[in-house]
Amino acid sequence: MDHGVSLSPWGLALLQALLYAVLAPLLAGWVRKIKAWLQNRRGASPLQPYRDLYKLFAKEARMAHTASLVFRAAPYIVFAATWMAVSAVPLIAIGLPTGAIADVIVVAGLLALARFFLALAGMDVGTAFGGMGASREMFVSALAEPAMLMAIFTLAMIAHSTNLSSVADYQLLNESGLRPSYMFALAGLVLVAIAETGRIPVDNPSTHLELTMIHEAMILEYSGRHLALMEWAAQLKLLLYGALLVNVFLPWGITRGTDMSDLWLGLAAVVIKLALLGAALALSETVLAKMRLFRVPAFLNLALLLALLGLLSHVILEVGA
Amino acid sequence: MNLEQLPLLQQLMIVLAAVALFTSFVLLEQARLVAAIHAFAWQGVLVAMVTAVVATSGGLEHLFFSAGLTLGLKAVLIPWMLHRLVRRLELDRHSEPLRRPVLVVMAAVALVIFSYWLVLPMVQEGLMFTRNIVAVSLAVVLIGLLMMAVRQQAVAQVLGFMSMENGLFLAAVSATGGMPLVVELGVAFDVLVAMVLFGVFFFQIRESIDSLDVDRMNRLSERGEDL
């Protein structure tokens, strides 16, 4: 990474994918740290997730006797699918080849693939909690996915492209001013992101309380490197939604070229935006209480409604303008 | 895409109208009466803001007066009166969720599309840009009507009625730059009188059927029989 040397597009795409993997635990640690501060605790260092991952990778991975091949393969598939999905979302630069290959529908599909194997792994061992977690995960995601796609279609209709780079590019190039559709789509996508990444009103990422956990219930049987991959994948997913929100809706500072100084600027901008987003997430997790599972449909209906209103207000108020 | 060409004030107007439509949905789905009254008050604030923005961008001075009137009446006075009524009727902890929330919300979305379809010929005439808001205000009217149909609670039905009036006002402001002042004053006075009458009715209804669930009025009963 010498100064003044400009990278090839594929090199930059690879660098960005690696950056995602490296930054993901930091975002999770940052959110935990802010949350601890808000609760008047000192909290662990933001680097703690790295230590946890290092520790888990060094440990032996134990398997249940009833575990099948699916259980063994699931962590690798989940991690790989999430990582592939993440690499199509612009982080520091747009117009990368990975972004050109995969549009946002592919991203949603890859995330669905990861979720499918996560749920299969939860059910594979045959414990009660795994099955319960899998069923809840599917329940939540079946409701979240339409809302997410609606919000994304709103963006796609505005930018005339389902490619995330083009959407961000459109935002950068056009002084679009105030758009009700963007506001509604953003609000809907924030709710979807909270549900999909298992944050507080829907799921509590830091609990092992049997009756309330969703994500944790599915990975209860994992240990060692498998658990590390699962947790890393969850952190990547949080970063994916964070990057999606900050870079598609507020793409300031993201670079279009491959110039080194622009890339540093893009990195600084995205780190600041994500740090602010993480702080906002920690704040909302502190003031909100987790809701009952059967309240979640109402929550996700609101997300769907917001996304639909975004679509409608685009058609009614903006196109005919 | 010619939204970018509009001046900022008109963009702001569009955003405010869209949020007013959203408050209509909030009102429709709200289970608690007090929260619904708050949503109604916010809708009043938004309608008043749209009026003020129309007045600023069009230089229509009499609209400032109607904006002030709307703010005072629909965002402060009527919500306050309703709030007081609800407290006196001891309904402030009453919660009545919709029976089929998803179906009702989807019906409301269908109404939005329907009103857009109705207004479409008007928009294609290529008149003022504010004609777009007519679709939104028509949707607010229809959602108010839907709210009166799906709610059993008399106070919630009154809120639906009042939000219909908000929609009509929004349509008048956005399509024609506001009604003459005399008409507006008359409508405002009518709404106020209606509110007072509704208040009297609430007590009457409750005295005769011991509830504000107006569905019970459909049932025939002998005098003195326990409902």
Secondary-structure map:
The complex is a heterodimer of chains A (321) and B (227).
Chain A: H1 9-38, H2 48-58, H3 69-87, H4 97-101, H5 104-124, H6 128-159, H7 164-173, H8 180-196, H9 215-218, H10 224-249, H11 260-287, H12 296-319
Chain B: H1 8-29, H2 33-58, H3 61-88, H4 101-124, H5 131-150, H6 154-176, H7 181-209
Helix pairs in contact in B: 1-2, 1-5, 1-6, 2-3, 2-6, 3-6, 3-7, 4-5, 5-6, 6-7
Structure description:
The complex is a heterodimer of chains A (321) and B (227). Chain A is mainly alpha-helical and 321 residues long. Chain A contains twelve helices and no strands. Chain A has one domain (9-319). Helices cover 71% and strands 0% of the residues of chain A. In chain A, helix 7 packs parallel to helix 10 (224-249) and helix 10 packs across helix 11. Chain A is globular. Chain A starts with 8 loop residues before the first helix and ends with a helix. The model of chain A has no long low-confidence stretch (mean pLDDT 88). Chain B is mainly alpha-helical and 227 residues long. Chain B has one domain (3-218). Chain B is built from seven helices and no strands. The mean pLDDT of chain B is 84. Classes of the chains: A mainly alpha (321), B mainly alpha (227). Chains A and B meet through helix 8 and helix 12 of A and helix 1, helix 4 and helix 5 of B.
